[in-house]
Design a protein that fits this description.
The complex is a heterodimer of chains A (490) and B (95). Chain A has 490 residues and is of the alpha+beta class. Chain A folds into three domains: 295 residues, no CATH class; 111 residues, no CATH class; 56 residues, Arc Repressor Mutant, subunit A. In chain A, the strands form four sheets. In chain A, strands 1, 2, 7, 8, 11, 12, 13, 14 and 15 form a nine-stranded mixed sheet that branches. A three-stranded antiparallel sheet of chain A has the order 6-5-16, with no helix packed on it. A two-stranded antiparallel ribbon of chain A has the order 4-17. The longest helix of chain A has 20 residues. Chain B has 95 residues and is an alpha+beta fold. Chain B has a domain of 37 residues. Chain B contains three helices and three strands; from the N terminus they run ααβαββ. In chain B, strands 2-3 form a two-stranded antiparallel ribbon. In chain B, strand 2 and strand 3 form a beta hairpin. The longest helix of chain B is centred in the N-terminal third of the chain and has 16 residues. Classes of the chains: A alpha+beta (490), B alpha+beta (95). At the A-B interface, strand 3, helix 1, strand 10 and strand 17 of A face helix 1, strand 1, helix 3 and strand 3 of B.
Chain lengths: 490, 95
């Protein structure tokens, strides 16, 4: 069955978008891929540059074993072929932020071969995206063009930092799929601890290859949109670029294969003509580096230390905790979320824990622009709040108020309940007294309620109000039912 | 194997080497001669021979993931053609 819902309607008929992504993910490591300079983000310019990174004459690269391990770990997480022998090549081009005049990368023989990623789509369905390869390479430095009228300034702190380039097959057909793919890759990398996935700081960025074709026909010519650095921009860039290509073709033009930049302010992609001929990279094996060879035992030892990955965790949340697939998906989308939920759910009603975490808790974080790491309420406190509801100390309604105060002050729920006197009234005689009081003050309503039992609801509200919401709602209902027995006519 | 003038022009540009128009013919001939000389190697049948990556069979040396290089900003920028405020400074390059 062919899914036609993603087609673009042009003036002359339907078009299908075809996309493949190249994701550059910075490897989590203390030092760089081939040098002993640090990799920390945000250091002062050129303070993390070794003689190797500055490409001073006579310097030789020596590979960081941790970066190799991280690449293998990532390959295993992507269910991909791990190549026991791979080769580093030189990719030659000139640019001021590339002091060597070439980037050390892997061309013909990458460390990781074909793999498979299951992406989660907004409608709850899943789709497989094939991975073509993953290779290790050096990052370049950073150029600043706005610091001086006639000069560009170059900071080489990033130069030589290890990157994993993850290349997908052209398996995506709409912007949502591309976004879901990036989210999934980011989640897997974070679970594995091989990349922090921080797109704002540039530790993860994507090049999107977009082409359009008539459904079922041969692939069209593609354009590569470089360095898109947020999931939202990826969506915008694809939407714009696909429509642009359809318009060009429908106006009788042809698409030229080229590199384009996404201008996030204007929401358009623009041609980067200057990079055109630079595509002749003249790759050849780097004579400074021997082939990278390791054993299957080495790979197996890394495989033995892999954490539970998002898909497996999701399946477990559904089967062990009885969560819906949707809620499980929301919780496993980030490792910290899943951990937070499991801390709250431990020894408690998992469904209730899930509702509180995905509902009030995430809602409050979102509204306050906070994350789990910066949250004023921790998992232990949220768990204690749920305990207070479960043992009838407070009602679910009061719990919402308590939660708000917890979020404002960071106080423990028990402390708030005590200080504010929010303990639920479960003493039946006290509740009955409140009911009697309300009834005595409203003889007309009593009469109405005797005639129309639906009016009893009004008394529930009044009693809750009279007790500042602290009366146990079940007890109130029960006692009121006794006061107003269903009449014979009903 | 013969190298034409256009190939020389292109290779020179990619390598950022200035070659004057009147030198193209000369370089084309020289490069052709070099390639023809190397081309002799293709007479040897290497179908069953693994590519040699090193004179002595050995594995690539690896290092531990440790920071071993101190900040060297002054040293690395000292020989730069231009440096300002701790940055390397180059003639403006803008996309």
């Amino acid at each position: 069955m062919t899914d036609t819902s993603n087609y673009i309607e042009g003036l002359t008929g339907s078009w299908e978008i075809v996309m493949g992504l190249e994701i550059h993910a910075q490897v989590v490591s203390n030092s760089k891929l081939f040098s002993g300079a640090p990799t920390e983000f945000g250091a002062e310019q050129n303070t993390q540059v070794s003689l190797v990174d500055a490409a001073l004459p006579g310097m030789l690269p020596v590979i960081n074993e941790k970066c190799v391990e991280q690449a293998v770990r990532t390959g295993l997480g992507l269910k991909a072929q791990v190549n026991l022998r791979s080769v580093f090549d030189r990719k030659n081009y000139f640019y001021p932020d590339l002091p060597q005049g070439y980037q050390i990368s892997q061309f013909k023989d990458p460390i990781i071969g074909e793999g498979l990623v299951e992406i989660d789509l907004p409608d709850g369905s899943t789709k497989d995206v094939r991975i073509e390869r993953l290779h290790l390479e050096q990052d370049a430095g950073k150029s600043l063009h706005d610091q001086h009228p006639s000069m560009s300034f170059v900071d080489l702190n990033r130069s030589g930092v290890a990157l994993m380039e993850i290349v997908s097959m052209p398996d995506m057909r709409c912007a949502e799929e591309a976004q879901a793919y990036v989210k999934k890759i980011r989640a897997i990398l974070r679970y594995l601890g091989t990349c922090d996935g921080n797109m704002e700081q540039g530790s993860m960025r994507a090049d999107v290859n977009v082409s359009v074709r008539r459904p079922g026909e041969e692939l069209g010519t593609r354009c590569e949109i470089k360095n898109v650095n947020s999931i939202r921009f990826i969506g915008q860039a694809i939407e714009y670029e696909a429509r642009r290509q359809v318009e060009v073709i429908e106006d009788g033009g042809t698409i030229t294969q080229e590199t384009r930049l996404f201008d996030s302010k204007a929401g358009v992609t623009r041609s980067m003509r200057s990079k055109e001929e630079a595509h002749d990279y003249r790759y050849f094996p780097d004579p400074d580096l021997l082939p990278l060879v390791f054993t299957q035992e080495y790979v197996d030892a890394i495989a033995a230390t892999l954490p539970e990955l998002p898909d497996d965790k999701k399946a477990r949340f559904v089967s062990d905790y009885g969560l819906s697939i949707y809620d499980a998906g929301v919780l496993v989308s980030e490792k910290v979320r899943a951990e937070f939920f499991e801390d709250v759910a431990k020894g408690r009603d998992a469904k209730m824990a899930s509702n509180w975490v995905t509902g009030d808790f995430f809602g409050a974080l979102n509204k306050a622009g906070l994350t789990i790491e910066t949250s004023p309420v921790n998992a232990k406190q949220l768990g204690e709040l749920i305990d207070l509801i479960k043992d009838d100390t407070i009602s679910g309604r009061i719990a919402k108020d308590v939660f708000e105060i917890m979020f404002e002050t960071g106080d423990d729920p028990a402390k708030i309940v005590d200080e504010k006197g929010l303990r639920q009234v479960t003493d039946l005689s006290a509740i009955e007294a409140a009911i009697d009081e309300v009834m005595a003050a409203n003889p007309d309503k009593v009469q109405q309620a005797i005639e129309k039992p639906k009016m009893v609801g009004w008394f529930v509200g009044q009693v809750m109000k009279a007790t500042s919401g602290k009366a146990n709602p079940q007890a109130v209902n029960k006692l009121l039912a006794a006061k107003f027995p269903p009449s014979a006519e009903d | 194997m013969s190298v034409d003038q256009n190939t020389v022009r292109k290779v020179a540009h990619l390598a950022r080497i200035a070659v004057q128009e009147d030198e193209l013919d000369h370089f084309a001939k020289e490069m052709s001669t070099i390639l023809d000389w190397v081309e002799q190697l293709s007479e040897v049948n290497t179908d069953q021979v693994e590519p040699m990556t090193s004179a002595v069979a050995q594995n690539m040396r690896v290092r531990a993931d440790e920071v071993t290089s101190p900040p060297l900003r002054d040293e690395v920028t000292r020989n730069a053609s231009g440096a300002e405020d701790g940055f390397f400074a180059v003639p403006k390059v803008v996309e």
